[in-house]
Specification:
By secondary structure, the chain is mainly α. The chain has 11 helices and no strands. Helix 4 runs antiparallel to helix 5 and helix 7 crosses helix 9.
């Protein structure tokens, strides 16, 4: 098996619970794997699309979309959602020093802000799925892909890491290797949903500036937050245009 195939399969092991690559050279292949994130996103989003289609043949569409969301979070979004919770806890804690904010993000305990905003997030996403995905199931592919693309685009643009250790640091240090392929997929999505995508990018850009100002850059948890908030914002703008 070539290094490029291994690097592609590593995305499933790194960004989901589908462990397609079980090698030991994880750190070596991670930089090479980043350029395949758009392909991984399209394949995974399409899998969710077919999950919904199959479920909807058996049960009501509202229940089918709920099951699809559950599968998405169990298999794909669990790690990103964990980053969303940690980031919410850390930046709403009232702490002002970088070290204090990063310490809260590294804490394994779930705080009150994480519970509150995590619950609101899931409620909103479920509401949007029921009102959008049941009529336009292809949105599963686009929203899923956009979240992962933003995880590549914004660290590539700013090129700032809040920490100098960990998997997040390794990813951010090499993220520019995936900029071109991510930008191509971003252009495709923008050509179909221009205003919704631009509005989402503007808001995530502002979040990125805020994170850099507070802690000096991105972390793995912050990238998880960016993935989740990008998906939600994009769907919200679509719902507003509906």
């Amino acid at each position: 098996m070539s290094d490029e195939i291994r690097a592609f399969l590593l995305n499933f092991s790194f960004f989901s619970r589908i462990n397609l690559y079980k090698g030991t050279d994880f750190q070596r292949l991670l930089p090479k794997s980043i350029k395949y994130i758009p392909l991984f996103s399209l394949i995974s989003g399409t899998a969710l699309f077919f999950c919904f289609k199959i479920f909807s043949l058996i049960i009501k569409e509202d229940i089918a979309v709920v099951l699809t969301l559950v599968i998405q979070y169990i298999i794909f979004n669990f790690f990103h959602f964990d980053g969303f919770l940690d980031t919410t806890d850390a930046f709403l804690s009232g702490k002002t020093k970088k070290e204090e904010i990063l310490k809260i993000m590294e804490d394994t305990h779930t705080g009150a802000f994480a519970v509150l905003f995590g619950s609101i997030y899931i409620f909103l996403k479920l509401f949007l799925y029921i009102n959008l995905v049941t009529d336009y199931p292809e949105l599963l592919i686009f929203s899923f892909s956009l979240g992962r693309i933003c995880m590549v685009i914004f660290p590539s643009v700013f090129n700032r890491s809040a920490k100098d250790y960990g998997l997040g640091y390794t990813f951010i240090s090499n993220v520019k290797k995936g900029f071109l392929t991510s930008a191509i997929l971003l252009l495709i999505i923008s050509s179909i949903y221009f205003y919704q995508t631009i509005l989402t990018l503007i808001v995530v850009f502002l979040f990125s500036i805020y994170f850099i100002k507070k802690v000096g850059g991105f972390t793995g948890d912050i990238l998880g937050f960016i993935c989740e908030i990008s998906e939600l914002l994009w769907l919200l703008t679509l719902y507003s245009w509906k």
